[in-house]
Amino acid sequence: MKSRSLSLPCMVLMGLCLLRSGAHAENKDEKPVYVSAVVNVDWRHPGLPFEGWGTALAWFAHVTGRFAEPHRTELADLLYGRDGLALNIARYNIGGGNAPETASYLRLGADVPGFWRKPGEGWHPDSDDAWDWSADAGQRWWLDAIKARVAPRDLILEAFSNSPPYFMTRSGRVSGHVNALEDNLAPGFETQFSRYLARVTTELERRHGIRFRTLSPINEPNTPYWFSTNTQEGAHWSPEAQSRMYIALAQVLRENGMRTEISGPDETNPQTLFVDWAGMSTEAKAVIQQINVHSYEWIGKSGVKDIAETSGKRLWMSETDLSPANVREDSNDMRPAIALAQQIITDINSMSPRAWVLWQAVENRSSDPKNSSNWGLIKADYSNLERPEYQVTKKFWAFANFTKFIRPGYRFLKSDNPDTLVAENPTTNEVAIVAVNPGIVSRMLDIRLPDAKRGKLTCQTFITQAEDSLATSQPASCSGRLTIHSRPMSVVTVVATPNVLRRK
User: Fold this and answer.
1) Potential cystine with 227: which of 48, 63, 176, 267 (Cβ 3.0-4.6 Å)?
2) Is the peptide bond before 32 cis (omega within 30 degrees of 0)?
């Protein structure tokens, strides 16, 4: 991962330095203008150990796992390699799969195949010839690539489903019911669908030498998104239908002696999760060991934390992404990067999730620049598997400001600044501070690092802005009172390491 060096005094200040900023006072002298803010950090109540960062595989892995070498290996290094983002979590999408005779209508990448064979002739899941384990070669390549790059102690895999196979649905399609507000699983098929998911999970574990810690059987269930002519897999599940599914899946997992935990409901936003959780049966809630929620809307995030705490469940922010409105696809535009950084900080400070997982790390490049967007961290050309082209975006580098320095096992500390995230390594007392400045005025952040056990510190900074991608400073001594220059439209990370640690 390439970066450019910057001098430390312009990044972390023990005194006041001249600010090189695009914002100036409205006078002839054009003196630097900045706002000052004291950032108070609560060291008394650290959060639970953070489990890490990840992405769903699904569509992008289905395509890029079939890219010619060296392209797919380069992408795996960028996302999961130690010199890349160093992600450690992956969510594998168990496809439902449409009927072979159904004309193609799912978007490129979203046509994740199922593992069944010959359902039209009577599907018997206990028979070996009912299964096609050669399916989904792209995603399965990524499982091996991730396993080779992530230390076993850090690797966490989750399997998830968007839809049952077509022959278990009411509409005969994996994209939803004709009526988007009606459940699409055929009545009484909860156990059959559970057996499908359990068998795929077990077989993938055996064939790839991995373990799925959790299995999420439904996705964004209580929404109006999933209708039969939609271009991606999805299914509506009322809270009552969700309850039946979770109970059936728990029974199947027990019957098969599986250690896999159940996660869910992977609802699209906190407000809808509240409706789901309130409508589920007590028995269903009891078998869910990990609450998954998506953060596609900002309202109600702190309420999700309350549910997790009172129910004693592990909480994940298991899916999100965003593209600022009216910003066309541009790998070098800082606005999507700033938006992602603010999303991460708000999610973690409000919900305290144990993990933060992006939807799709790689997105298909737009064929229509006038109607393009900035989803994903890397833009790739899905149309050419042999000679694919891809571009790393500023969102990728902004994400790196978090993933490379806040690692599994770190604990988040509460901060009263809404644009700052603080985490500590409880073993070494190293502190990572990420600050985002979404505006056009410089900020001078006064951050105090109390606690004598840290002693003298060495600080190093890393900045992503229009002209820099994770540019780094030379390490230098710093004190327990840290002043950070947060430049306009930038994401800056400061790593403060106790000198005792650095001498070892």
Assistant:
1) 176
2) no
